[in-house]
Amino acid sequence: MKNSDRKNLKSITETVREIVSEVANYIKNESNNFQRQDIETKNVNDFFSYVDKESERLLVKELSYVIPGANFITEEKTIDQGDGNGYCWIIDPLDGTSNFIHGSTPYAISVALQKDQEIIVGVIHEITRNESFYSWKDGGAYLNGARIHVSSVEWVSDALIATGRPHNYVYHYSELMDLFNHFQYNTHGLRQSGSAATDLAYVACGRYDGRYESGLSPWDMAAGILIVKQAGGNVCDFNGKEDYLKNGTLIASNQLIFNEFVSIVDKICYGKKLSVE
What we know:
Elements: H1 3-30, E1 40-43, E2 46-48, H2 50-66, E3 71-74, E4 87-95, H3 97-101, E5 108-115, E6 118-126, E7 131-136, E8 141-143, E9 146-147, E10 160-163, H4 173-185, E11 189-191, H5 196-205, E12 210-213, H6 218-230, E13 233-236, H7 244-247, E14 250-254, H8 255-269
Parallel strand pairs: 3-4, 10-11, 10-12
Antiparallel strand pairs: 1-2, 4-5, 5-6, 6-7, 7-8, 8-9, 12-14, 13-14
Helix pairs in contact: 1-2, 4-8, 5-6
Binding site for Mg(2+) 2: 220
Binding site for Mg(2+) 1: 75, 92, 94-95
Protein name: Inositol-1-monophosphatase
């Protein structure tokens, strides 16, 4: 990538961080006023609220000025797509809504920018700790201005692994529970934070050594995928390919445990398709 292109992406990333920070302040303020009767249900254990909707509206409004005409893929689907021009914003306005509703943590805003199907900018802002994780293509990964890297753990048995259960996990209950049980009892621990975006950011900075999940949506993982890669990690889907945004399965970790991690998932799943159609 040319230096001029890299500088432009850095500038876009900083602008996105400013926008996301403002919306994060809105969410933080609303956390003091939010009432549980304000929630709505999309699916089993899948909730949203006026905070999700308003956060998305604010993000879409401001990001529309950054790259005029860009498409949007958004969790709450509050807008029509633009003309595109090869650019597409992928937005989760509040990842970890259930945590937010219950006054628990973490919850985050996740924003990614694609150019011709390639993720080139990623920003994840974990609101309760005021931590901004971000990266741009060929620019490295950062947390509040400091460079971050994935962990140096060499074996899955020594790893702290994160996961989540998709809202439709009942359809793959046996396979997913086999994976869950394996990592629960054969690693340093298995964590379920309730925020896929935050988990991926934690893989990028070494707090977690790896993460896997089935049933994800593009907005759950797009920004995190880039941040993990730019922090020196590896990412693939459950088939060992890079179709994660299409099939909703994800494996992410540092490079040292990656092959072993993927092999375990493949062995336990026996190549079964765990993607969501």
